[in-house]
Amino acid sequence: MIATVALSLAVPSLAKTPAAVPYHWTNVKVGAGGYAPNIVFSPAERGLAYLRTDMGGAYRWDEKAQAWVPLQDGNAVPSYMGIESIAPDPRDPNVVYMAAGMNAGQPAAILRSADRGRSWRITPVPFAMGGNEDGRGLGERLAVDPNDTRRLFFGSRHDGLWRSDDAGATWRKVAAFPVAGLGRPAPRTTHGGVAFVAIDATNGGAGRPSRRIWAGIADPGVAHLYRSDDGGETWVAATGPALLAAKGVVDPRGVLWVGYASGLGPSGIKTGTLWRYDATGVGHDVTPSGWRDTGAEGAFLGVAVSPMEPGTVAVSTVDRYRHGDSLWVSRDDGRSWDDVGARSQRDVSQTPFLLHEGKGADFGHWISGLAIDPFDPGHIAYTTGATVYATRSLGRTSVDWTPWTTGIEQTAIITLVSPTGGAPLISGFGDLAGFVHDDLDRSPQPTFVNPYMSNTNTIDYAGMAPNVIVRTGSLYLDRPRDASMGRSEDGGRTWTPLKLPPMGDPAKREDLNGDWPISVSADGATMVVATPVPQVSRDCGRSWSVVRGLPGKIRAVADKRDPRLFYAVDTDRGQLLVSRDAAASFAPVAARGLPADLTPAGRKGREAQSALLAAPDRTGTLWLQAGERLFLSTDSGMTFVPASGALRVELFGLGKHGLFAVGSLDGVRGVWRSVDTGKTWSRIDDDAHRWGGRYRVVSGDPRRAGRVYLGTDGRGLFYGDPMAVR
């Protein structure tokens, strides 16, 4: 039996608390942006709904505020931001449960709240979860018995079926369940396990637990659906197709609807089907004929029923690439179906970022969350890999969908810059390319095109000519491309592709893979790319030549005030390289004060932030991170002095009259600011603003003292200001 542990979602401070400066934190608005595997309406209160995401935690819809409220901003455990399942109590609107755990190698827990997610009690569990693994769109794995709300079931990926009889405080494995589990997966693999638990409330009553329970299996095996008629004491296999039972819901009459799929999803599903099981357990194939007629591609990961209209069911497709995903509705128990997608239209004017791929807003992709409002059958919502759509016009000839995203910011930020002129912020996102943020409180227009790269890996700007912006990026899909870099002369609003001389294997061009960072001189005239053979251009990319003295794959950093100066760290030889001829050549300098081992300064991977930064306001002022320490030079790298005090630095960035960092001091991990060149630090986040501790990049603003930008891995992009200046 697993006992509860009452834990705060924030890591407690030690007795010695570092100095703190109150900051006001606000999301830079995009409007959702990532994959939300499911949305669940509360059956206990009108206007109450919950959304779970795969790496950005959970949200609650606040009907009065007309906004989604993030429920885990005080959480400091990274793994708990991957939500495997969510279950609101069907009787008490204040109670909600979550299963949290990012993947098989990270901590997992059942979280329970009695105040709609404002605070949580945590039960760590020994079985692994996969909130950000394949199969995260299955479910729901967590179920509350409507007839005895202290009784919960949870279907695990790797270790069978589990049960709690004390409202989630303790858990024990259901020994009688026929599928015990497959054990921990091999690296880079996962299991579907018990994909959903669906409880039929029609065969119980007040004080009498429900007798009939269904459980779907999403692993290979003889049977994929099991039924218990005695509250889980014994189980029998149900008939069905030779496919994985992916999604299951029970309607108020005790009818079970199951979406079957050939794979776990959200990608790679080839085919599927939809079945209906009556109260006697007899199953029928009720797959929409319109789906079959278009090639039976993909499957049904979205399945929803209307409690107010018996016999009404909606299903959505996933991985239907040739014809596009859609949604079907039946009002006669699956005998006939209406293809809603064919008469749908979408208004994304409030979240124009959805047009970032250069095409109109289609029905969506990775659709696995689908829900019908239990109090309004015309109100239906579905989730995609980038947004949440909702409509209140399901029964009309034309169905109008709008993003239902106010308050949701679920994106992964790879990089960002705050230039010395122009827009205050330019960002590089995963999956969404990146944006010019002229207004931090409005969803941005997509401008990172020509070339379009789904992931922006590096951005740089010319310190004295900040309208000159350069970027590199990569595609998460293997699409044809002839450039992985771009240059802008108007602050990132329009771009010209930069094409390097072909390098590497013709089948895997090194100049096109987006791995290599680009930098631009203070006047915008010179660009340097850290390809295996470093290249420099002085004519806006029309021609390129080899950089002398700079080893391959080493990032060059431009001085922000002197166009002749560039710097680089050669970690293999443990030396600082300097160019004084606008990157025509580099030569080592006998830098005094640096540690003997500079290996930690050579951060690996195309998404890694630079360990070397040039101050935006002073010539020859450099900051270098080596391991957990910062070093400062004010003479173009000739001498360095330690500049991080007692702070153990993970990430750092520069701003006006200040230095910002993510790191730990006196046992407290957080976001910090120094105004005395790193001698002392003040904490600027707090225990209500931890965002899972998943930080990717931090930077100050060179024009606004105290302003900081923080990119997270799942909770979007933030800007913070000292409260005294707001």
Strand-helix topology:
Layout (H helix, E strand, L loop, with lengths): L22 E5 L10 E4 L7 E4 L5 E5 L4 E4 L12 E6 L7 E5 L7 E6 L7 E5 L16 E3 L7 E4 L5 E4 L7 E2 L20 E7 L11 E6 L7 E4 L7 E2 L6 E7 L5 E6 L10 E6 L5 E3 L3 H5 L5 E7 L7 E6 L8 E4 L7 E2 L4 E3 L23 E3 L7 E4 L4 E4 L7 E5 L9 E5 L7 E5 L4 E4 L17 E8 L2 E10 L10 E4 L7 E3 L19 E3 L6 E3 L5 E3 L7 E2 L10 E2 L7 E5 L4 E5 L7 E3 L22 E3 L7 E5 L2 E5 L7 E2 L5 E8 L2 E8 L2 E7 L7 E2 L11 E6 L7 E5 L4 E6 L4
Parallel strand pairs: 26-30
Antiparallel strand pairs: 1-56, 2-3, 3-4, 4-5, 6-7, 7-8, 8-9, 10-11, 11-12, 12-13, 14-15, 15-16, 16-17, 18-19, 19-20, 20-21, 22-23, 23-24, 24-25, 27-28, 28-29, 29-30, 31-32, 32-33, 34-35, 35-36, 36-37, 38-39, 39-40, 40-41, 42-43, 43-44, 44-45, 46-47, 47-48, 48-49, 50-51, 51-52, 52-53, 54-55, ...
Overview features:
Methylamine Dehydrogenase, Chain H; 2 domains; 4-stranded antiparallel β-sheet; mainly beta; disordered N terminus; 56 strands; 1 helix; elongated; 5-stranded mixed β-sheet; 726 residues
